[in-house]
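Class, look over these structure tokens:
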Amino acid sequence: MAVVVVCVGLSAGCLGFLTGTQALEFSANETVVSDTALEETGYQEANNQTVRNVVQVGLAGQQRQVNLTSYLYTYNRSVSASDLNASGFGAFGGGANADGGQTGGGSDANENVSVPLGNTSSAVSFSVLAMPNARVGGQSVHPLSRLSTENLVRRFLSTDGSSVSFEGNRTVESLGDQRTVSTFRFEGNGSTDATDGLVHVASFDAGNDYVIVFSAHPVVIDEQDQIDILIAGLEQPAAR
């Protein structure tokens, strides 16, 4: 269940939000991969960031400010030089502004909220973003929660016009429920399969948070089992 905010005039914060003199604040729980899953897969934490976004929501014909605090953890593992040479797979572009990409000015600006992917210099990476899952006046606060998995792939991965094609779905149990994980294939910088990559993405409602998982690797490296272990190993220590 999302956090639904109904301002009834009893809260100073809500009153300030209604009058436009104060922003509403929402913060997610940090979502991380368990130590057990990291040990089993050989992944390690590469980076973590606190991502702050400012969005504008419409309320009674007026724009009001909402401040969002999300948490991004990025993991990767070492791959052999022979694997990298076989793949021809370079570092990812994409991502965004490490300061959290403040936006404002209406619904179009909200759709352009940017979130960095963290350290994606590794050929094999796994990122998990936990965003506050809040609604104000029936409107979802974080615009990324409204994007399809394909649009998330295109937003988070700089494809430079390369094609992105859907490969299939599977389910993995994570954070107490079955989650749909979608796989997409994208073209690399070369003309052969050796430069192509696979992206695994899941986005789901986890109660007070909305969680997005994004993992990528070259096609020639078989990584799906490890990725599924990482997804199954997600936990929220502070929410216990």
Observations:
- The chain has one domain: 3-239.
